[in-house]
Amino acid sequence: QQQVKQSPQSLIVQKGGISIINCAYENTAFDYFPWYQQFPGKGPALLIAIRPDVSEKKEGRFTISFNKSAKQFSLHIMDSQPGDSATYFCAASPGSRVTGGGNKLTFGTGTQLKVEL
Amino acid sequence: NAGVTQTPKFRVLKTGQSMTLLCAQDMNHEYMYWYRQDPGMGLRLIHYSVGEGTTAKGEVPDGYNVSRLKKQNFLLGLESAAPSQTSVYFCASSFYAAGVYEQYFGPGTRLTVT
After folding, report:
1. For chain A, which terminus, N or C, has the lower number of CB atoms within 10 Å?
2. DSSP E strand stretches across A1-117
3. What is the pLDDT of residues A68-91, one digit of tens each?
4. Residue A102: which of B40, B50, B107 has the nearest Cβ?
5. Residues of B in contact with A103 (CB under 8 A)
6. For A106, which residue in chain B has the nearest alpha carbon?
């Protein structure tokens, strides 16, 4: 059962354009939604994260939009640059609702982003 | 501060051989995790630990064993490797702060089983 569905699988954007990656979740117990960025040959690195008490979070050129009622969240990369070319993973977890069980992240299947000149 | 490190970086095994992957973290994190990453499937949790001496099964635990004898180390063992275990393995660690657990990943181990 895939609890976090991510789309598209791959994305090509022109330099300066907006990259948009979407995720949908099923488990209403999720309350922490991070995005990870992964470059070839490297481990995933936390990019930005959101809790459901806000509908949007912005850090530089990266913005998460969150729609609790639709159980969807998305990553927007403004003014996309060739250096943003990487694989992006959304994830979700129960976060603070889990006591004593740690934080188990459920990942989407990833989006391979290529930003062309 | 090296963060999360993994040993080895690459390994080729023959079917039926055994091996141990080592993960070490120097951030004093309580929680540690092992994931596998396969094309088109994202990262899937194999086993995790909520503290020294504890382990628990994740989403895909079959064929793997783990141990957390020291807080800073988390070992992943394959007793009898199978081609289906060809994958990239990532270790992660996390701590609890401000209501969430941020996970930090190591650089990965690429394992091929022939």
Report:
1. N
2. 4-7, 10-14, 19-25, 33-38, 45-50, 56-59, 62-67, 72-77, 86-92, 106-107, 111-116
3. 999 999 999 999 999 999 999 999
4. B50
5. 31, 94, 96, 100-101, 103
6. B44
